[in-house]
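For this section, I looked closely at a protein sequence along with its fold in token form, which I now present.
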Amino acid sequence: MNNSQSLSLAQVVAELQQISQDKLSGNMTIVAENRQMIRIGLLSGNIVTLSYKNKRGAEALSLIQQTKPDWFQFIKSSSVTPDPDWQPSTAEIFNFLSGSSISSLKSGSVKTTAKTLSQQTLEVLKEVLTEFMGPVAPAICNKVLRQDLNLDMSIDLLAKEIPEWKESLQFKEQVRKKLLTDQSLATTA
């Protein structure tokens, strides 16, 4: 499954959707007009990895949407390794690549974009990140939260700023617990 004639992103997405519907496993490689490679891994039709340039997952999606593909190829394989930080569902990825905005991408049940995060949520993110990163945490939060991402993607991006993998997992866990606790307190008050 490859193509060497003029392509549009919509054509590649349609082919990817067909591969997904056929529940195939393997890797799709797309070469963009700028000679950069986009890699998409599927397991049983579900997208489990996505990378472009030095970005992965949801971060790579906004870049991919702006590319013009020159060529693509899908190679069946049962040895696709899922990205451990993977968030968007396959359906959400197809919706996004079909023209939705990055803010429409969501993970889990949280649908809030960073631009509309409550002040309380922002404070929780900064407070918990400070426990792991020290006094640079507010600056890191400000940098990451400039992007129009949902809460889960914002948490994931902040966690990636923490050098130690175990600590980044602890950060995610602490933030979610604190936000759930604060939410349940607010609804019972």
Q: What stands out?
A: Confidence is low (pLDDT under 50) at residues 101-115. Strands lie at 2-3, 26-32, 37-43, 46-52, 55-56, 69-76. Residues 165-188 form the longest helix (24 residues).
